[in-house]
Amino acid sequence: MRSAHVALAFVGLNAFVIAQNNVTTTNVTLSWVPFNQNQFDNNAALDTNGDVQLYWKVGDEYSTFGIASRSSGYLALGFSQTGAMTGADMAVGYQDQNGSFVFENRNAAGFVTPEVSPDQTNNMHFREGGQKDGVTSFVFDKKNKADCLQTQDDLATDSWQWFIYAFSESNTFAQHSPGNMGKQYLQLGTGNTVSVNTARTVSNTQNFTVTSPVVAIPTDDTTYCYTLHKMPNGTKNFLIGERPTPSSPLLHHLVLYACYGPADQYLPMLGQEPNCNWQNFSNPCTGFVTEWAPGMSARTFEDGYGKPFGSEYYEYAMLETHYNNPQGIAGQTDAASYTFLWTDQQVGVEIGTLTLGDMQVSGWFLEPGKPIVSHSTICTPECTERWPAEGITAVSVFHHMHYRGRNARVQIIRNGTEIAPLSSLRDFDYGYQFAKSLNNVKLLPGDELITTCDYDTRNDTVPAAGGQASQQEMCFAWVDYYPANTVLGCTQVNPSYGDPTQPNTTVGYCVQSTQENADMYASNAFTASFQALPASGNNCTDNALAQANGAAIVKTCPETDVCFSLNVPQASVASGSGDIFFQLSAPTTYSWVALAEGTMMSNANMFLMHSSADGRNVTLSPRMASGHVMPTHNDAAAFTLLEGSGIANGKMTANVQCKNCTSWGSGKMSLQDSGSQWVYAHLSGSPINSDDLNAAISKHDGQGAFQWDLLQATGGPDTNPFLGVTNATYSSSGASKQAQTPLVQAHGALASIAFVAIFPTGAILVRLASIPGLAWIHSGLQIFGYVIFIAAAGCGISIANSYSYLNQPHAIIGLLLLGVLFFMPILGTIHHKIYKQVGRRTVWSYTHIFTGRIGIVLGMINGGLGLQLANANKSYITAYGVCAGLMGAVYISAIVFGEVKHGKESSNVLQSTPSDSREPKSPDGDRSGSEGQL
């Protein structure tokens, strides 16, 4: 049984520190670890004290892991792309109240409570676990290649894997205590190790520190400072290790550039104060040595490897310090430094660094308001042909973006065909940057390298610019490789970005250490076609490469056993309309499954699949709904149920060719949309077994929304793509259970508290209570309720923007209430003052009273509309209806009672006092007892 006490469990993971000792595998038996350690090939301590031990054995399809901690509460192990909690695929074990051990697969969308994955059987297999004698431990299998479910992660079985962990002395899954967490970067595969993200001692080396003189950090948002430094003397030396020393919380990054023959005009900078006039300074140094950014640790090359420098290479280096001071903090100073291990002894393998990405930095913009916006640059064959004939071997890559960054990758195109990528990184986190180790990827002369960065621009209302400021964006990939050669950077530029008088065209850009200026040249690489890898998510099949005439298919499995796929033929994109192909797939344990174009059920272009009359095939029913009612058959849909559809092995499959899905009713779909909106729904239960396209269906018990990048789905002929799946490229897109998101839950809970609890309570009290300060209590409660409603409205507006709900009645009524109720305290104050003067209700009184009454009732009704819009479960609707109905009945009764009471009091006053007498008093002497409030 799963714990019902799930709270924030990993929030403190942003306090991770990296142990500076090298983590190595060992076969030493640890007697306190309760499971059989001989079943594993390797183990490592995850913490510095050795109290958290990880064991593993890499397999073909699944790998086995065991983890043990000297603790008596829950224990969690996460598989992370970056060492951050964001996107981590987690295994969690704890003991429930009945003494049974519980194992769960969870996923963290950020530094929030990790949610239980909908897949508890396929991604991870629980083997054993328990708690005894102050030790918590469990053993499980993890699938090496994740399915299309976006809450899962691939396992880096051929190289290095980030592990994060947390533990507690309590079995309540909640935020751990400070220090009870950590991360480690461990080598799972058998590839050669070239660099390790730790600081360690290397024999026969010396230390050399590049230090910037103290600088007074300006109050500007962005400041770049530059200092020139002389490297240690010698003809040929080698950097062996890097030890950054971040010294100020305002430090955004440190970069050390190699200066290959700097012009004489720059040499006077040697030993001088930092040049922080960055907008008027052009850095002459083009070679990249290394960088520190938030999250990065020290780095050490393995024995026999080193980066060359000296009079044969470069003798000077430029240190760039970037300060980010958005709050304009004054009086801050800094003296940044970078320490290196170096040797004058010849190494066996010389390491070079290649800069990929947007070296032009500025001149490009990102579309606002999108969950994923991609920006790509191409390193052309004309530049890579200058590599040695035998090619180079990439050993690590450092992906760099700013705060909008989400995913990054470097693709390889060889002889016009895309091969396995050089590197892919999902769930980029600005605070957790690192040099990603590679398993020795071979690159050949003439290869084309495509560097892509994905960004989340949902918080932007105007295009986000590329640029040097932290609030702008960058896209870089620095690749360490061997053997070192003269090519320093390879990308594309547009000369008009820097000089409007230049041609507005894209040209190749190749930087070499042997040339003072970079080469710029025309290239066919910018017009060549290639099959793009997915913008985010995992590949859905092992066949990640398209063959000739193969179709590109995007696939998402928003639930473990419910999957949808899409293909857009090349001809349809060229014409702007035409056929699209999609597939619905689900077990026969579902009564029906539906896929629809749109952001909500209302007016969506829906296709519903259920079993046919004979139970051996499927019926596909095109449907539409004018609102949240049962959708009915759509006669206007032009579609064909294709070969491969049917029921087999307990699974329903519908392969569909749609001829008019680019336009329906009031909706349209662009075939070049990188964020096409789709929704889905399903109902578990008995089969429908009907050929009727308008067969009655019961309400769904599950639903959600997701986006598809149609550019990733484009490719192939206008034929059924789902028969020749071996010729298809599968990629995946993200899905979200919209109605179950924390933001939706917060919106509903806060609004319900305001309209079903606080507002009516304040109004009931002023009708029925007779206590001192009643008017102040009433006012305080109503203002408090309005503050809560503001918070609810903020959540609702964010949801409405994300799912295009602003035109829905629920959103319109909510915004209307938000605006009208703002004036209620003002109306109440005016009413109160005038009532005390004249002793009777006025137009201000009635405006205040009836606006409040209508607002409360309308707010209660709107809550029901919101539950309907969110397609909430019946239990939620029932619970809300009961609570709102009871409170509404009490509220209306209080209104009736109050009006009767007010009538009697007014009558008594008229009968017993002159016409100029005072108004009736409340029990505390405040003349508000029967004024009539909200």
Automatic annotation (TrEMBL):
CDD domains, per database record: CDH_like_cytochrome, Cyt_b561_FRRS1_like, DOMON_DOH
Keyword Membrane assigned: yes
Keyword Plastid applies: no
Biased segments, Basic and acidic residues type: 916-934
Keywords for the protein's UniProt record, in alphabetical order: Disulfide bond, Electron transport, Glycoprotein, Membrane, Signal, Transmembrane, Transmembrane helix, Transport
Biased composition (Polar residues): 906-915
Domain of life assignment: Eukaryota
Listed Gene3D superfamilies: 1.20.120.1770, 2.60.120.230, Cellobiose dehydrogenase, cytochrome domain (2.60.40.1210), Copper type II, ascorbate-dependent monooxygenase, N-terminal domain (2.60.120.310)
Stretches assigned to the DOMON domain: 50-168
Compartments (UniProt record): Membrane
Protein name, UniProt field: DOMON domain-containing protein
Organism: Friedmanniomyces endolithicus
